[in-house]
Amino acid sequence: MKAVRGPTDHVVVVGAGLSGLAATLHLLGAGRRVTVIEAENGPGGRAGLVEFGAYRADSGPSVLTMPHLIDEALAAVGDSIDERLDLVPLHPAYRAEFADGSSLDVHSDARAMEEEVRRFAGPEQAAGYVAMRAWLERLYRAQMRRFIDANFDSPLGVLNADLARLAALGGFGGLDRRIGRFLGDERLRRVFTFQSLYAGVSPAKAMAAYAVISYMDTIAGVHFPRGGVHAVPRALADAAVAAGARFHYGDAVSRLERLGDRVVAVHTVHGRRVACDALVLTPDLPVVHRLLGRAPRRPVPLRYSPSAVVLHLGTRRSWSRLNHHTISFGAAWSRTFAELTRDGRVMSDPSLLITRPTFTDPSLAAPGRHLHCVLAPCPNTALAPLDWARLGPIYRDGIVAELERRGFDGLDASIESERLVTPADWAAQGHGAGTPFSIAHTFTQTGPFRPRNLVGGVANVVLAGCGTTPGVGVPTVLISGKLAAARVTGVRDSRHRAFAYRSPAASTTKAGRP
User: How far apart are CA 444 and CA 299, in angstroms?
Assistant: First the structure.
């Protein structure tokens, strides 16, 4: 594994999001001094906090999986998830509602899910689910050690025994077709393939290897931290401070000071100069490229994932059919992905993720009030430079009207406070193409072909975050921080490897750790 050259005693980490915090903890555990510079007034990055009226909502991810990776970062400094977070396992992980009026609860427990599929679609589909679950577990084991939790120095790094295992499992075939071998019911196939949209590709075009995201969602289990997902970066930052890290909040990095092929200091908008031996950059790629003064040349331009409109609603009532996470599928499916990834249009028959955090943690709203967050995928601004200042309120009204048509009667009248987030807002935060999901996981942007976390031509700069390896999502950005730390220290810490690769689905502890 290649590492940065020269001294690495003092490391500056730019960005206090999940990847930056994970990098910080692993660096501290390896004996480095760490200074973190964050433009916002507190930790979180994409996993930030939105406060409006009497409501506190997560600004980013609402689905938390693989919490053992949080514990791994905390363990690097002798801390633990049990000391820092109160994680609630969600049973069911999701509720899926379909246009034909049917619904399905998605359980992580194998027996409970088998029985639910039998109720929903019959014994043949239940048997298919059992077989698919076993396949997903084998797929996870084949990918995690060598393809996800791995630093690549060249594409040749994928030539290992796990590559053969992944090929034998059909990982390089089509996702939709592979899941279809197990499940004939089109509704069930949606439940186990929609996650590919997180990776920026439609199920019809995604590699079957991306079913590992479905493993994380539907087998490893979904959790919710009391206080919201934003409690995770707060916990990581508190542990880092306790271990000796210094944080400078509310001060963005304006430029990098270079001497030869090294960055020797960072300068901030408030006039601070912070000397460094090594540097970890975690902002989105456009910001990183601006700071470095150039973008790496690629034979094909980067392709970004679809974006999302998020509507945070504080309401005077809720609806009993809503679980913590509810997916409301429209009747359309393939047309939906064409609109999002090819045509550059908002969904004509939307599929929506409705998160009701107060279902699990009522403290996120005033007594007797409820918090609902509605996520509607939409085209990114590179594909469709829409006028969101004009379209946003119109689309908001359309989402609310569609939800009322789907049975959430009285929704509009119950809203007492709200916050609308559009691709224009994501772009203003520095996210490329106005999407919080960064670059898509196409084949040429996956694994060793994704932008590397080592920066060519600079001896002591490493990247972390969803724009580099291994990719998008809470588990992967936590891993990216660990991988960045390994690039700095030159040592792949093996203390937690057995811990990290036990199947998270076997967890029985409060925090869901293996």
Answer: 10
Supply φ then ψ for residue 106, to 5 degrees.
Answer: -100, 110
Please give the chain's pLDDT, 514 residues, in tens.
899 999 999 999 999 999 999 999 999 999 999 999 999 999 999 999 999 999 999 999 999 999 999 999 999 999 999 999 999 999 999 999 999 999 999 999 999 999 999 999 999 999 999 999 999 999 999 988 778 898 888 776 676 777 888 889 999 899 999 999 999 999 999 999 998 887 888 998 899 998 999 999 999 999 999 999 999 999 999 999 999 999 999 999 999 999 999 999 999 999 999 999 999 999 999 999 999 999 888 888 899 999 999 999 999 999 999 999 999 999 999 899 999 999 999 999 999 999 999 999 999 999 999 999 999 999 999 999 999 999 999 999 999 999 999 999 999 999 999 999 999 999 999 999 999 999 999 888 988 889 999 999 999 999 999 999 999 999 999 999 999 999 999 986 544 433 333 344 433 334 433 3
Q: Looking at the structure, do residues 24 and 120 belong to the same domain, yes or no? A: no
On whether both 312 and 413 belong to a single domain, the answer is yes
Residue at 464 is within a domain: yes
Q: Which residues, in sequence order, are CB contacts of 368 under 8 Å at separation 6+?
A: 316
Domain count, the chain: 3
Which stretches does DSSP call E strand in 15-92?
33-38, 49-52, 55-58, 64-65, 87-89
The last residue of one of the domains, among 212, 238, 268, is 212
Question: Domain holding 476: CATH number?
Answer: 3.50.50.60
Distances in Å between the alpha carbon of 311 and those of 57, 395, 514? 11, 10, 35
Q: How far apart are CA 257 and CA 135, in angstroms?
A: 50
Residue 28 is assigned to a structural domain of this protein: yes
Question: Does one domain contain both 384 and 336?
Answer: yes
Q: Does 404 lie in the same domain as 313? A: yes
Return d(Cα 427, Cα 241) in angstroms, integer.
30
Residues 360 and 420 in one domain: yes
**Has residue 96 been placed in a domain?**
no
CA gap 137, 220 in Å, rounded: 9
Structure tokens at 104: 């399905």
Domain limits for position 331: 306-436
Q: Do residues 310 and 429 share a domain?
A: yes
